[in-house]
Amino acid sequence: MTMLTRDLDPIKEEFVQFYVNTMSLDDIIDLAKTYVYESVEELTEDEFKKHCNDNVDEYIYDDLKQYVEEDDPKKAHQLMLEIIDDREVA
User: What domain range is 55 assigned to?
Assistant: First the structure.
């Protein structure tokens, strides 16, 4: 017998609750990274820049681009620290 959607939805909700509650923090982080990456992987450069602007700020795309293109690991590390520091909530 096939369940109606309205009967199946509460079971799905409980499954999600149970599943997430039994995940480790690392598993949850991996899941979140996968979800976020999949939401941006098909975007064009312009669409991605807009997404970055809408979800972080108008500088994040250029800051990350500079970080990724930096060949010196020490400079790259410093850039990432600055990217993080510039966005920390006071």
Answer: 44-90
Q: H-type helices in the chain, by residue range? A: 5-21, 25-40, 45-55, 60-69, 73-87
Euclidean distance between CA atoms 10 and 76, whole angstroms: 47
pLDDT single digits (tens) 23-39: 999 999 999 999 999 99
Q: What is the pTM of this model?
A: 0.74
> Is 90 inside any structural domain?
yes
Question: Does 19 reside within a domain?
Answer: no
Question: How many domains does the structure of the chain reveal?
Answer: 1
In the numeric block, the tokens 């293109």 are attached to 69
Q: Count other C-beta atoms under 10 Å from residue 69's C-beta.
A: 9
Q: Tell me which amino acid residue 26 is.
A: D
Measuring CA to CA, which residue among 64, 65, 57 is closest to residue 87?
Answer: 57
Q: Indicate the DSSP class of residue 71.
A: -
CA dihedral 79, 83, 89, 90 (to 10 degrees): 40
